[in-house]
Amino acid sequence: MKLTPDEQAMLDGQQGKAKQKAMDLLVRYGEALGAERLVDTKNVCGTVGASTPFLREFAQKKGGMDAVFSEFNLDSAEVVQIPKVAVFSSHLQHGIDPEHGDRQGVPAEVVQVHRKGEAYAAGLGIQLLNTCAPYTVGNVPTRGEHCAWMESSAVIYINAVLGARTNAEGRESAGCAMLTGKIPYWGYHIEENRRGTHHVELDIDVESTADWGLLGYYVGEVVQDRVPVISGTRNVPNLARLKHFGAAAASSGGVEMYHLVGITPEAPTLDAAFGGRPRPETIRYGKAERRQAYEAANVTAKNRNVDFIMLGCPHYTIEQIWEVSKLLEGRKLSPNTEMWIFTPRQTAHLAEQNGYAKIIREAGAHLMSDTCSSMGRLLPKGTKVAACDSVKQAHYLPAIMGIESWFGTTADCVNAAVTGRWSGGLD
Ligand code: F3S
Fold this sequence. Notes:
It is built from 17 helices and 14 strands. By secondary structure, it is α/β, with parallel strands linked by helices. Helix 9 (about 240-250) links the parallel strand 7 (about 230) and strand 8 (about 260). The strands form four sheets. Strands 12-11-10-13-14 form a five-stranded parallel beta sheet, with helices on both faces. Bound molecules: FE3-S4 cluster. FE3-S4 cluster (F3S) binds near residues 342 and 396.
């Protein structure tokens, strides 16, 4: 890999041991990928600290967060002192919400280690956005901006909707990018890799957030990790719909980039989305495909007695909280159900200010931040059957937690929370 003089200086240890180790890892990683060079980045989203049980134990045994960063961000058994980050870096979701440790069944000592990790990240200069949807709370990369982001649902959003450029990074490469401001130049950093590989034409209206999730789930399954181009959209989807579409496509297939013709920035026309290359055969998405996706999203669900309703995957926007508060207003959750709604802390503050949090509390539901059920492996005690309005969460919860999960609209989920019974279905 060709290095610039400043990259070589870091690799030679002229800027300290931590940067040397970071640069060494980036070079090894880039060479394994076949990258010819690194690219500058000034926007990194990753994770540090100790928010999972294993890392918390490691931090306690090894006696500190520098040890965790060295081992799990720099791949170094030798503990080195970690300097402040070199570029704008944001923290993604954690494994717990320290404000709701009791309800999430997290022991107080674990919350304490978590808070140490959080203080450590802040000390390094990392922005504590603590969400899988940083683009909803101020980290909004611009078109063409080279980024180094983890979190599949965020990666696909900033690539496709914002036209920023990132691959789905790991904890190690993102940690190294924080310290160096560099990331291998390959994959979706390169113009030609961003062009479409598959063409999906919509034969039906795709309107609701749930429908965008189903479309994403279907498309991901069909194209796997390639670049779908979707045409025939009759409605312009909002942020929440594209958030759900991307999260679902990244779950069923590993999609990191897509184009919506006439909507996303790199697809003003069908030809532009394919970069002038010949178009592949068209895949059609109609009623049958929508049903197929719905059935796949509900494949684990059998028991209609629901005990847990999880909303906010990816973390809810303020618009979604407003919507759910309207659905909950004046109603009470069934004594047999628990409802957790996940949103960034900043959005939770806004929900409080606007009175939505009060409505949610009065209904008996809980607004939480920083984590989610799948990420933190957190469920109310005894949960057997969940309901979600996110295909991604319905996909992961049964696999990770061994429970059943229904998928439906937000209204279906709120009804289940109030009645204790799942009555959703496809119209
Ligand atoms: Fe976010 Fe958890 Fe979903 S981290 S994207 S809410 S699986």
